[in-house]
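About this split. The held-out portion is used to measure sequence recovery: a designer receives only the structure tokens and must propose an amino acid at every position. Recovery is the fraction of positions where the proposal matches the reference. Here is one held-out target exactly as it appears in the evaluation file.
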């Protein structure tokens, strides 16, 4: 599914939906009740957000008896990433890296912020690796 940028920004402009996506990315498949418990909101609110995300194609679900786990649709997320890359002005072109020109022209504060973002991303990746190794 290819997203219209304005529709994608409206869809992802709700903090709870971003938190749900981040949670599913870091934890893998989860049911609505578990998501609600982790985020500290009602299962009904989570269900409404999941419905919107599912209709947009960002998450998918597959009933397993009474349990309905939700997971990220990686292809749809990649399409979102492509849309963001089209409007991004940092010069990274989706690599997550500053272009050489932007890197040499960047101020210390910008570089420190970028470094912190990379460190946080690395923590998430390492945590997921440990989860996979322990299972």
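Reference sequence for scoring:
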């Amino acid at each position: 599914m290819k997203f219209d940028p304005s529709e994608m920004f409206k869809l992802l402009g709700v903090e709870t939906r971003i938190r749900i996506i981040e949670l599913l990315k870091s934890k893998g498949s989860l049911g609505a009740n578990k998501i609600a418990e982790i985020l500290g909101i009602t299962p009904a609110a989570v269900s409404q957000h999941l419905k919107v995300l599912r209709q947009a194609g960002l998450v998918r679900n597959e009933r397993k008896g009474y349990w309905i786990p939700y997971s990220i649709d990686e292809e749809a997320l990649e399409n979102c990433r492509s849309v963001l890359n089209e409007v991004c002005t940092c010069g990274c072109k989706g690599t997550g890296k500053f272009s050489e020109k932007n890197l040499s022209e960047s101020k210390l504060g910008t570089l420190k912020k970028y470094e912190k973002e990379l460190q946080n991303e690395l923590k998430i990746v390492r945590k997921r690796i440990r989860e996979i190794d322990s299972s």
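Annotator remark: The mean pLDDT is 82.
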